[in-house]
């Protein structure tokens, strides 16, 4: 039995209350409980977190880097979704 | 240090594509490097870029975990509880740094076991600095000040390395290293200002660690076979000699403030260059240690192999426990 037979986990850490969990890194562990303990030792040795999520890497579905352009393309030609698209006369406030 | 391992049938890989496709991938890669963008694990990358990174990150990871040994040697004999707690935290950090780096290497498609196996069989190297012995307590200080100081000088530019997972690992490592360097400096200062014998012990440690620390930057630029390509790929941002000079310039005034001298009679300020000149490095020693003939090469690897073998039952037990309880744990805590 070797570590490579231990699954890979992705670690997400909430640095303080009010903030989202952020991806911190990955680690190997035999089960979720050990993954949490290892994550605490590896990623929060200096009080970097108040909450940790561990997720099996195999459970993550990712967009392919190859499809990057066509996949995200629908957003590219819609500048009107940004407030800076609109012209506002000089002096108008609170808009 | 990153999200996903590259998939076996990597979407971006040219394997399934014809030659024309390969050229387009190469162009996209070159453009990303030129624009100073980061390469991420599932991006297409040239085989040689991948191999260079695996070699460098693996060697870096191995250095972190082998580097635990010379300092751990003094944990049981630390002169106070304060020093002992600090040293334990530092050695634990080195283990952590090794793990960040192994994770980064794994994003390139190599397995953790494969890497450890190559370390244990001597097919992959670690920094030759760790083949020197820690003879006195002052060596713990000299390692923190000089060895970690040299490592930081090397690693700060690596935070901007073109490979995303390596760069991110380096950001975390650098944040933690600065405590390592400071505790070493403080330790040496305490000895230097102590009794005559303590001062002599600090000076002896600095005398022994100075030259090996300068060798940590690698061979001179004209003899460094990987440097040019690594700089073109923006894995490396500065040449070996440039970083070595930067380190010398930083250390000279620090040595003065410690009340210690550096063992180089040719060390002097060069007004014209705006840098310190220093004496020639004995590269034959470097190559001897690299070849395995340093004072501790055998001991370090033996110890590492033994630790791995003796930990096997723990890994097996944890895996057996996970298998046994795996089916029953359907009710995991919800993420919130």
TrEMBL record, chain A:
The lineage of its organism: Bacteria, Bacillati, Actinomycetota, Actinomycetes, Kitasatosporales. It comes from the Bacteria. This is Ring-1,2-phenylacetyl-CoA epoxidase subunit PaaB. It comes from Streptomyces radiopugnans. Pfam families: PaaB.
UniProtKB/TrEMBL annotation, chain B:
InterPro entries: Aromatic_CoA_ox/epox (IPR052703), Ferritin-like (IPR012347), Ferritin-like_SF (IPR009078), PaaA (IPR011881), PaaA_PaaC (IPR007814). Residues 1-21 are annotated as: Disordered. Pfam families: PaaA_PaaC (PF05138). Residues 1-20 have a biased composition (Basic and acidic residues). It comes from the Bacteria. Gene3D superfamilies: 1.20.1260.10. GO terms for molecular function: phenylacetyl-CoA 1,2-epoxidase activity. One of its GO terms (cellular component) is cytosol. GO terms for biological process: phenylacetate catabolic process. This is Ring-1,2-phenylacetyl-CoA epoxidase subunit PaaA. It comes from Streptomyces radiopugnans. The lineage of its organism: Bacteria, Bacillati, Actinomycetota, Actinomycetes, Kitasatosporales.
